[in-house]
Fold this sequence. Notes:
mainly alpha, about 240 residues, binds zinc ion, elongated
Amino acid sequence: MWRRNFRQTPIQYIMTMLLLFFGTLALSLFASWKVKSAYNHYSKVPASSGYTGAQIAQRILDLNNIRDVTIQATPGELTDHYDPSNRRLVLSEKNYYGTSVAALGVSAHECGHAIQHKELYAPLQWRMAAVGITGIASQVVMWVPFIGMFGGLIPYKLAITIMALGFGVLMLFQLVTLPVEFDATARAKKVLASTGAVAMGQEYNAMSKVLDAAALTYVAAFVSTLSYFLYYLLRMMGGRNDD
Ligand SMILES: [Zn+2]
């Protein structure tokens, strides 16, 4: 029954697309606002241990016997990342030189990725293996609606199937990103507490707020790609053969 019901009129189609677009946009804007405001607030709260982000990162790498990863500073805000192909731990200047609870939290989180890399943590391996196809999928879902649906160059059913597959790949990529990010954050919290870099109580809670807000952005990205994937999957199964 729903199959027939899912055949949309052009107006319904446009309304659904607008709802999807603005709904997922609002979600990701909310998530990035949340992480930015938590970061802005807690990057002004110094940790009593006096460690800088770079110092705690070096300490954590040493504790894990990781000798082949270099730590470097980069400009920009929240540009921190771990680069597995070059074994580089890249920290934004504010976190590299900073002694705030936010700086220590972010630095320790990036170390979590370096440790995952060393331990061949499975979800990180899957994520690294999927980077190439994910790049292709994001190009595909961007261009197919233009050349296919609006230009009419690709048959409708084929275009919908390609879109469902493309968003399926993006959704799976965001899905495996979740354990990678949650695990890195769990490792960060644990090591910051055990080394005393962040004092239990207020400092620990503040650091947790920053890292939990950051994790929310990955949940938002997953929910967005899942929504688009389900949308195209339903349309695909709705089987509009009339065009
Ligand atoms: Zn991360």
